[in-house]
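Q: Sequence in, structure out?
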Amino acid sequence: IAIRESAKVVDQAQRRVLRGVDDLDFFIGDEAIDKPTYATKWPIRHGIIEDWDLMERFMEQVIFKYLRAEPEDHYFLMTEPPLNTPENREYLAEIMFESFNVPGLYIAVQAVLALAASWTSRQVGERTLTGIVIDSGDGVTHAIPVAEGYVIGSCIKHIPIAGRDITYFIQQLLREREVGIPPEQSLETAKAIKEKYCYICPDIVKEFAKYDVDPRKWVKQYTGTNAISQKKFAIDVGYERFLGPEIFFHPEFANPDFMESISDVVDEVIQSCPIDVRRPLYKNVVLSGGSTMFRDFGRRLQRDLKRVVDARLRLSEELSGGRIKPKPVEVQVITHHMQRYAVWFGGSMLASTVSPFLDC
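A: Exactly. Output:
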C-alpha cells in the first residue's frame, strides 16, 4: 500500500480536513509500486498482518474499487495463514462486521483450500484432502501437513525464504555487477527479472559451465525506462536467472542463519507426522503460491525429496544387514495451472457451495 506522507505543518482545522483527504489518497498492489512520491508500506509481513489500520484501508479499496461490491449484500470467505493467533482472527472479524457490516464471514485455512485446488491437476487420480502443502508467496513460505482436511499444527514448519527474499537477492547480485540501473528502480527491476527470466536449474555447477561455454545462448537482455529522465536502459541477465530461485535449495546463499534446503524441510515435516499418514503425504506434495511458479521447481523438489527418502530406505536396509527390505515410497509433487492462485481458486470452489455459510 502506498500512502502520502505530508511533512507540512498546518493548524488543527486544516489537519482535520487533510486527514479526511489522506484517508482516500492511497494506492494498493502494482499501483502502489508506480507511485514514487508516496511512502510504500507493507501491512502484512511474513504472512502475518502487522498493521490493522493499513489493512482495513487495503480491504476498503479491494471491496469498493476493485470488486465494486456493497459488503452489506454479500457473505465473505477469507483465508488465514497457518498458526494464526485467535487475536488476529478476532481483529479480522471485528473489521469485517463492524467496519464493513458484512452479513456473514467464513475464515478458512489456506492449506486446505490449496489442496482442493490441486484436484484440477492431471497428476491427481483420487481427490483427497490429505497432503503436504508448500505455500510460498511474497513474504513467507510454509510446509503445512494436512490429514483428512485437518491441519497437523504441531508439525508445520516456517521457511524464511520467499519471493521478496529472491527479489532482494537478485537486486544485490545486480548491484555487485554495477550494471547501471537507476537506484530508485533497482527493486522494481529485480522483481521484473525474477518474474520474466528466472528458473530452477537441476545442477548449479553444470549451469555455471553452460553459461560460460555459450553466454549468447543463455544470457538475456532486460530493457527498462528511467522513471525520471525517461531514457531507456538495458542490462544483461546471466547467472541471476538461476541463482535467484536457487536460494530455495541453498538458502545459505542469501541467509547464513538458515541452512536447510526446502526438500530437507519437507522431509522433516513429514517424518514428524503420525506414521500412518506419512506415505500419503509423500504421495501428495502440493505447490501453492506465486513463488512456486519457477520453471522446473516441482521437478527439482521431487527429485531432491526422492533422493532423501531413498537414502533413508537404503540406510535402514544396511543397518538390518539386508534382512529388512523396506517398501519403496512414492514421492509425487503436484503442479497445476491454478497453482499461482491455488488458495483463491480453492476458496472460490468452497464459496460456490452454500454449506460454509449455513451457520452464519
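Confidence is low (pLDDT under 50) at residues 7-12, 15-21.
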